[in-house]
Amino acid sequence: MPEGSLSLGNFRQDERSNVVENRRRFLSALDAADWTLVTARQIHSADVRAISDIRDAQADPAECDALTAHTPRIMLGVQTADCVPALVADPRTGAFAAVHAGWRGTLAGILARTVESMQLEWDSRPEDLLVALGPAAAGCCLEVGPEVVAAFGKRYEYTDELLSRRQASGKANLDLHRANARQALDSGVSVEHIYSSDLCTICRDDLFFSYRRERGAERPVGRLMGVIGRDSQSRNSQSRNSL
Ligand SMILES: [Zn+2]
């Protein structure tokens, strides 16, 4: 982990007590010291888990790659190094989600599955959702092999729009921000509700951890954490509760 940085994840490599302490400081800095932070044991799947209440939030992390919730003062966290962190908010119902979308999760449709899950669990409507795609290995740097290119081509008819710098070997650069933005759009999210960072974790070594950039380095790679939650009942859920 780079010296002086604040790794919020990766229990396997960082001292567990350091990460616990860093998370405590992180929540304090957000003025959320008494909130319950929930993270998943991310496995590059398309599995979504809904957190039903605070008690559920305090359970051991489940294996999945997207978390959704509706309860105030639960903070959902997604840990990334080069994968896309996607945060979803529903201002109408007060539901929210944190999604880990690397190429495997993106290929498996993790963001689309999350939108579906929010519809089922929290009565969300896709057109109300706000989606933010955070810094990740961007199209400038994320080179993938021909098998990844082929897998995307088989599943998504717009794959050509996601690729650049195609090589004779079949390798190409893959734009995961664009892939997830398209996935959100195809799920019914309005184009003006999709925000995508153009920051690349590989280029911007002054700002971010990067698994790929630091691969092979002696020091362990840290993780970034994107979080989402809300402080109080939404207006809509208050009115629903009072009906
Ligand atoms: Zn880059």
Characterize this entry briefly.
The chain is α/β, with parallel strands linked by helices and 243 residues long. The protein has helices at 16-29, 54-57, 103-107, 110-122, 146-155, 159-162, 176-186, 211-214, 235-242, and strands spanning 36-38, 48-51, 66-69, 74-80, 84-89, 96-101, 130-133, 143-144, 163-164, 172-174, 194-196, 224-229. The protein has 9 helices and 12 strands.
Characterise the protein shown here:
The protein is α/β, with parallel strands linked by helices and 243 residues long. It has a single domain, classed as CNF1/YfiH-like putative cysteine hydrolases (4-Layer Sandwich). The protein is 30% helix and 21% strand. It is built from 9 helices and 12 strands. It has a 6-stranded mixed sheet with strand order 2-3-6-5-7-11. The longest helix has 14 residues, at 16-29. Mean pLDDT is 88; it is low at 235-243. It binds zinc ion. Zinc ion is lined by residues 138, 140-141, 200, 202-203.
Report the radius of gyration as a whole number of Å. 18 Å
The chain-level mean pLDDT equals 88
- CATH architectural grouping: 4-Layer Sandwich
Low-confidence stretches: 235-243
Estimate the global geometry from the Cα principal axes.
globular
Number of helices: 9
Instruction: Examine the coordinates and then state which fold CATH places here, giving the name of the CATH topology.
Output: CNF1/YfiH-like putative cysteine hydrolases
Strand arrangement in the largest pleated sheet: 2-3-6-5-7-11
Largest sheet: 6 strands, mixed
Give me the strand/helix succession.
Answer: HEEHEEEEHHEEHHEEHEHEH
User: In CATH's first tier, which class applies?
Assistant: Alpha Beta
What is the domain tally?
1
Annotation, overall tally of beta strands: 12
- Please give the alpha-carbon distance between the first and last residues: 51 Å
User: Which hetero ligands occur in this complex?
Assistant: zinc ion
Could you estimate the helical fraction of the residues in percent? 25-40%
| Strand coverage percent | 15-25%
| CATH H-level superfamily title | CNF1/YfiH-like putative cysteine hydrolases
Name the structural class.
alpha/beta
